[in-house]
# Entry
Amino acid sequence: MIRDYRPADWPAVWDILRPIIRAGETYCLPPDMDEAAAREMWIGPPTQRVSLAEIDGRILGTGHMGPNRPGPGAHVANASYMVAAEAQGRGVGRALVCDSLAWVARQGFAGLQFNAVAETNRGAIRLYHDLGFEILGTVPGGFAHPAEGRVGLHIMYRPATADDARIAP
# Structure
């Protein structure tokens, strides 16, 4: 089940974010980011919506979305997702992405852009390709992976369609 975030959900969201941020393998975030900074980054502006994937009452994934840029760039959305390690490969990420595609379309955004997808995040890239996203460009060596060294950082995009508003995860 995908639902909207409530303030009481923060401890469960932080439990998902913390190990992913600390690992430094997928996000351009400082691995030592503290909880207050992570909270502001995930639920603060420009975020307009935070979603949660919940199975049997347990929060196993989260997404946040809003305009990619302010002003003349605000018609394109941006989103990010994090899924608990024990839930990866179980469709949680797919459900979150599909839900955000529907939200993006209903909000009138022209499309959804991912600004920084590390090329080593192979599972996410496969999922995004499967859902119609394209790699628009890659910054060579743009991501310093802790084990694989400097790897490419993809910019990915998918236009919103009228059918997206009816997507069910």
